[in-house]
Amino acid sequence: MLRTNLSFLSFTEALYEKHPQSEDIVLTTFSKGELLLHQDGKASKVFILKEGIIKCFFREENGKDYILEFMSEGEIVGEIEVIKNSNCLCNVEAITAVKAYAIPVTLFRNLLEQDANFNRLILEELAERIINTSSRASSQQLYTIEYGLRKILELQAKQDIIISKEDMAAYLGITTRSLNRALKEL
After folding, report:
1. Model pTM?
2. Domain end: 135, 152, 174, which one?
3. Are residues 164 and 184 in the same domain?
4. 106-159 pLDDT, tens per residue?
5. DSSP structure string for 104-171
6. Is 52 left (phi over 0), alpha (psi -120 to 50) or beta?
7. Which of 71, 113, 115, 153 has the most crowded CB, counting CB atoms within 10 A?
8. Distances in Å between the alpha carbon of 144 and those of 93, 140, 157?
């Protein structure tokens, strides 16, 4: 539910320390509500989260959002767009204050071509996402809304954050009205 990747964070921090005065990798901050990536926009950087929580979501043509993931430390965003040389598939928004390492596209591509360890970390991350997406799709089909809601409420308590009702509903793929009914039944 809240994805992290501490091995990717360790790799990125070591890379950052090798280039402390470089403009290659920059530690960037984002305020709550600020977009790291904009759906259909062009990714000029790839971001690896150092701290904070983001949500990755689609905004559909009907104006409704669907949250794919909540992500935190060590998670990477923008890599798919750079690998495929495509526009951003979804929005990525900070839901808390966020610090992230910003890696320019050229450096990211060089690392993919020249660093086997980096390449392995990317492949592991992409494989993990496929597994998690499959598992989540199965869970949403086989379990009740209340089950998913309990998981979100546990995450909220564990991380000491507040997830809006709109975001809870968007993560569960339901309306806010259905969410309110489910909250009453808990």
Report:
1. 0.87
2. 135
3. yes
4. 999 999 999 999 999 999 999 999 998 888 888 877 888 888 888 888 888 888
5. EHHHHHHHHHH-HHHHHHHHHHHHHHHHHHHHHHHHHHHS-HHHHHHHHHHHHHHHT----HHHHHHH
6. left
7. 71
8. 27, 7, 20
The secondary structure of residue 90, as a DSSP letter, is S
b/e burial code for range 35-71 (CB count within 10 A of at least 16 → b):
ebbeeeeebebbbbbbebbbbbbeeeeeeebebbbbb
Q: pLDDT tens-digit profile of 141-154? A: 788 888 888 888 88
CATH code of residue 75: 2.60.120.10
* pLDDT, tens digit, 9 for 90 and up, residues 25-71: 999 999 999 999 999 999 999 999 999 999 999 999 988 899 999 99
